[in-house]
Amino acid sequence: MSRRPERLLIRGGRPLRGDVTVSGSKNAALYAVAAGLMTADAVTLHNVPAIADIDEMGELLRALGARFEYVDGTAQIQASELTETSAPADLVLALRASFLVMGPLLGRLGEAACASPGGDVIGARPLDVHLAGFRALGAEVGRRGAEWVARAARLQGARIFFDYPSVLGTVNILFAAALAHGESVLINAAAEPEVEMVANMLNSMGARIRGHGGSVVYVEGVERLHGTEFSVIPDRLEAGTYLLASAATGGDVRITNGVPHHLDSLTTKLSEMGMTVDLAPAGESGGIRAACQGGGLRAVQAQAVPYPGFPTDLHAPLAAALTQAHGVSVVHERVYDNRTLYVGELRKLGARITVGGQSVIIEGGTPLVGAAVRALDIRAGAACVIAALAADGETQVHDTNHLDRGYAHLVERLTALGADVERA
Ligand code: EPU
Looking at the domain that runs over 26-231, which CATH code has it been given? Predict the structure, then answer.
């Protein structure tokens, strides 16, 4: 979990082939760690990825008075006595998910404070969905210096309409509503598998949540929650990244623990691009395989939208793979307003790719050539890695700390698939 500035050296042109087992979901694990604050009892989480963001979230829990230990994929949390209601500013700046301490603290202690959090530079990232949700549940929400402060003697269940199906917003309001008095209905909630998972985890702690994984979620508030032992779902975004690397390199990669229905939007695109896709039977996790056929890839159109649509986090990796498809592809971004900065990095490798408004236009079939590029955020970094794996010669990917935030054992996993990659 090093945070030193490092480079990846990638000598491209080799098809990726073989099996890869992905880590537990970064985002779901962050929500699960925050959920550890919801009870005084012990919470044990398995399949937690060894990434820097989890370290930071653990630090944040400790700063609030909770115990947090992480060993070999298992996190132990105990928040029996919370000594602080305010999240320290330095940790909040490092991590977008830090704002998730608000719901648990408000629900358990009646007060919570946190500054506007940091996170990747990918567009405006407001908090109105979170704040409106807390207010709807009866909290008073205001500013204290740089912090948002929410207070409520006891939250009251309510019918809450979300202006946007914000992922973290939905999780925060789920936390608060789970400990409120009476029933809440969350309308236009985020349906991402990571949100569904955290609701399942809360139910395993005694919460009464129904409809999660859909856009209308019902929460019957309870007095308190108890401890749990819970396993984090596999990372669909890490899985998607390796499948797109397979596409870009003319490869054949199987994600041994992929959950096919979490990636319907991607596997449909991979089929449209001309890959052969094999899925484990419906409802089972057990694999997603995407293999290139002779004749190369075809261009496609895609729109990045909330789940179950194509994920914004796979927009840049998809665009990188489409540099190798025949014809003109378009990827339209509808979640973030500044997610196209990676385009300049792919151009350094020779990609013919331009931005028009919120659309990225890719003239595919271009031979890429190694160059020095920067990982501007986690997914921009993943796009650079995919393009580098398809390029002739050596690419240096700088600022790998971004990649380390989301991709555990990246070099080892790529090497096992036959890539020529090392850290310098
Ligand atoms: N939005 C609002 N109001 C709000 C909150 C968000 O309008 O109160 C808008 C934002 O402006 C943005 C859109 O909603 O346009 C998406 O934001 P959302 O709140 O859904 O994103 P998030 O919860 O802050 C999580 C992930 C992101 C992922 C998004 C979308 C974490 C820590 N982050 O962010 O992951 O892109 O959901 O799926 O879980 C990543 O992993 O690389 C990453 C950035």
Answer: 3.65.10.10
Q: What is the pLDDT of residue 275?
A: 97
Residues 6+ apart with CB under 8 A from 393: 11, 12, 369, 370
Nearest of 295, 366, 302, 357 to residue 329 by alpha carbon = 302
- For residues 29 and 87, give the distance between their C-alpha atoms in angstroms, rounded to a whole number: 19
Distance from chain centroid for Cα 419: 24
> How far, in Å, is the centroid of ligand 1 from the Cα of 368?
31
Average pLDDT over residues 309-335: 98
Fold classification of 7-22+234-423 (topology level): UDP-n-acetylglucosamine1-carboxyvinyl-transferase; Chain (3.65.10)
Phi, psi of 325 (to 5 degrees): -95, 150
Atom of ligand 1 nearest to the CA of 379: 42
Phi, psi (5° rounding) for residue 98? -60, -30
The 10s digit of each residue's pLDDT in 133-144 is: 999 999 999 999
Give residue 135 CA to ligand 1 midpoint distance, Å.
Answer: 20
Q: Where are the domains of the chain?
A: 7-22+234-423, 26-231
Question: What's this model's pTM, rounded to 2 decimal places?
Answer: 0.96
| Closest atom of ligand 1 relative to the 31 alpha carbon | 39
Q: What is the pLDDT of residues 225-243, one digit of tens each?
A: 999 999 999 999 999 999 9
Contacts 24+ apart (CB under 8 A), 139-142: 139/106, 139/176
pLDDT single digits (tens) 328-374: 999 999 999 889 999 999 999 999 999 999 999 999 998 999 999 99
Question: Which residue, by CA, sits nearest to atom 2 of ligand 1?
Answer: 126
pLDDT value of position 2: 45
Query: 352 CA to middle of ligand 1, Å?
Result: 29
Is there a shared CATH topology between the 7-22+234-423 domain and the 26-231 domain? yes
Q: What is the pLDDT of residues 251-308, one digit of tens each?
A: 999 999 999 999 999 999 999 999 999 997 665 656 999 999 888 999 999 999 999 9
Q: Is the CB of 312 under 6 A from ligand 1?
A: yes
Q: How far is the CA of 243 from the centre of ligand 1 (A)?
A: 23
Q: Which pairing describes strands 147-151 and 140-144: parallel, antiparallel, or unpaired?
A: antiparallel
> Tell me, what's the pLDDT at 1?
46
Indicate if ligand 1 lies below 6 Å from the C-beta of 403.
no
User: What distance in angstroms lies between residue 125's CA and the mean position of ligand 1's atoms?
Assistant: 7
Q: How far apart are the first and last CA of the chain?
A: 16
